[in-house]
UniProtKB/TrEMBL annotation:
It is found in: Secreted. GO terms for cellular component: extracellular region. Pfam families: PBP_GOBP (PF01395). This is Odorant-binding protein 14.
Amino acid sequence: MGVKTVIFLLGLLLVCSSSGCSLMNAGDDDGASSDGEQRESLLADPATMGAVKLPKDYSVEDINVECNKTFIITMEYLNELNDTGSFPDETDKTPMCFMRCFLQKGGILTEDDKVNKEQAFAVGWVKNNETIDDCLQEMTGTNCERAYFLARCVSTRHLVEGRSKDSKRR
């Protein structure tokens, strides 16, 4: 596993959940009447969620191996996501479903594909509410597409923020 991939995966998840992953796909949005309502419908209820506590012996590599059993993805795809913020082929659903599995196992997505904001903060995947709120708008399409678009948005923000910090240091 390459250093960049490990950094992305560790940034993405430091812990994971025991929730399962399925090939089930949902339709487009749930009929919410406004952007705010649609975003809210994509969030897990914080009163029932909080940060997911998981066994310490369950690692990022374990998640990668487990999700790769069903959704085979190459390191090239993950490296591309790290380097550019997106997968090389955004029509291939298998890597998107891998990302859904990965986010579910890490507790960032619930089994019913809602975003657990508290877990995203707890593992350091996001640093502020604005990132999650803005990235929720990207979550369209099937469940796998929604997971990928969320990850793509967060990854792109990390890349932009990193470049911004680099330019300030010069």
